[in-house]
Design goal:
It contains twelve helices and 22 strands. By secondary structure, the chain is α/β, with parallel strands linked by helices. A hairpin with a 2-residue loop joins strand 11 (231-237) and strand 12. It starts with a strand and ends with a strand.
């Protein structure tokens, strides 16, 4: 049977574009459809614009630090319009790079929605049908907002990059990394920021000690954090949003953002008609090689809800190409993935939390919390955390957790050692780089506790 293409990719985000490019470079005839902007969540409405906003939000503190170090500087005001214009110009540039990657690799693109018509056929929004030997779904995820009276007044992380003006007051609802990152960003940009989270502590699933420190530091920085609190109802009052909370509070905010979860972007793709299974969260069910129950259809990235990180989607896309087009069955490695949370303070983590490690075996915990030199000299009270979780039996470092400026940069390198199976003694044998914050990772000699 002949097909229009060897591979048709639905979704132009990081995972889909990488799979398309790598396949095309192997001589595979590839097409790709994207209904929105190329680059996906990470480039257009996620990691990249968020990190640029993190940078912008930190400059006010840098001015104060500079003054403490003797520089005669005057605090300025943040120009949202100027920043937003440059931000969107940068996103346009990056989208152009993604489009050129596809063009330069002779991948035919369709700027419209696509869905499955059968196991080898894709139907485009204009009714055109294209056939392919293999179909890869890489449509990512999408923020979801719970339904309650007035919920339509809330924005999500998708819209925050497009605000016409910076609000004076803002409520952010949620306790995951997206909510906490934007609470720090908006607070740093001078917005009076309130955060509600229904749970007992933010950043559920991460190391308890680390997330406790982040929570403390966020509050000290000015975020008005309310734990055990959720929104009951909202309504418009003039140009403000009235919010009633479960703790009885009633407040007015200029803007409300919900960051209470994301769902796999898999609706309306024709999956059910083909018998492709989805789990209770709506994710496409795949095997270890990213293959669905229909042999010609594969899925990678957030739409599978395995590990929802851009570099993971890219790895999954590359493993798919290696499996299908190189004849080398390759399962993406989801173990010991280092990651950063760009809260303020920043967190880097790899491996098991203290709590998870203690459930599986006896451990030793090495940890230290201190005022870093740069901030201490400037007179600030912020503290950082360096923490290693060590197996008593094997001496392997099971987890590394860093809460500090630049934690993301540090954890990338520490992650290599943990991935290689380094022991505590391997860390001890490494000479410290002095004076640095991270030298504490190789100088902690005595466990602070065992479990």
């Amino acid at each position: 049977m002949s097909f229009d293409y060897d591979l048709f990719v639905i979704g132009g985000g990081s995972g889909g574009v990488r799979a398309a490019r790598v396949a095309a470079q192997r001589g595979v005839k590839v097409a790709l459809a994207e209904e929105d902007r190329y680059g996906g969540t990470c480039v257009i409405r996620g990691c990249v614009p968020k990190k640029l906003m993190v940078f912008a939000s930190e400059y006010a503190g840098m001015v104060e630090d500079a003054q403490a170090y003797g520089w005669d500087l005057s605090p300025g005001s943040f120009d949202w319009d100027r920043f937003k214009t440059k931000l969107h110009a940068e996103l346009d540039r990056l989208e152009g790079i993604y489009r050129n990657i596809l063009k330069n690799n002779e991948i035919e693109t369709f700027d419209q929605r696509a869905k499955l018509a059968d196991a080898h056929t894709v139907e485009l929004a204009d009714g055109t049908r294209k056939t392919a030997k293999h179909i890869l779904i890489a449509t990512g995820g999408w923020p979801v907002t719970p339904e309650f009276p007035g919920s339509e007044l809330a924005i999500t992380s998708n819209e925050i990059f497009h605000l016409e003006k910076l609000p004076e007051t803002m409520l952010i609802v949620g306790g995951g990394y997206i909510a906490c990152e934007f609470a720090g960003i908006m607070n740093g940009l001078g917005v009076k920021t309130t955060q509600y989270y229904r749970g007992a502590q933010i950043l559920r699933g991460f190391d308890d000690e680390a997330r406790g420190l982040i929570s403390e530091e966020m509050c000290q920085a000015g975020v008005d954090l309310h734990l055990g609190t959720n929104v009951l109802e909202m309504r418009k009052e003039g140009d403000k949003i009235w919010v009633k909370a479960t703790n009885g509070d009633e407040n007015l905010f200029d803007q409300v953002m919900f960051a209470t979860g994301r769902a796999p972007n898999a609706d309306g793709l024709g999956l059910e008609e083909l018998g492709i299974e989805r789990d209770r969260a709506g994710a496409i069910v795949v095997d270890q090689y990213s293959q669905t129950g229909v042999p010609s259809v594969y899925a990678v990235g957030d739409v599978t809800n395995r590990v929802n990180l851009t570099p993971v989607a890219i790895r999954e896309g590359m493993a798919f190409v290696e499996t299908v087009f190189a004849g080398n069955p390759t399962s993406p490695d989801h173990e010991l993935i280092p990651t950063a949370i760009f809260t303020q303070p920043e967190m880097g983590t790899v491996g098991l939390s203290e709590e998870a490690a203690a459930e599986q075996e006896e451990i030793e915990v090495y940890a230290t919390s201190f005022k870093p030199m740069q901030q201490a000299f400037a007179g600030w009270a912020q503290r950082v955390l360096m923490k290693l979780i060590v197996s008593k039996a094997t001496r392997k470092v099971l987890g590394c957790h860093i809460v500090a400026p630049g934690a993301g940069e540090m954890i990338q390198l520490a992650g290599i050692a943990v991935k290689m199976g380094a022991t505590k003694e391997d860390f001890d044998r490494t000479v410290a780089v002095h004076p640095t914050m991270s030298e504490e990772l190789v100088t902690m000699k005595t466990p602070v506790r065992t479990a």
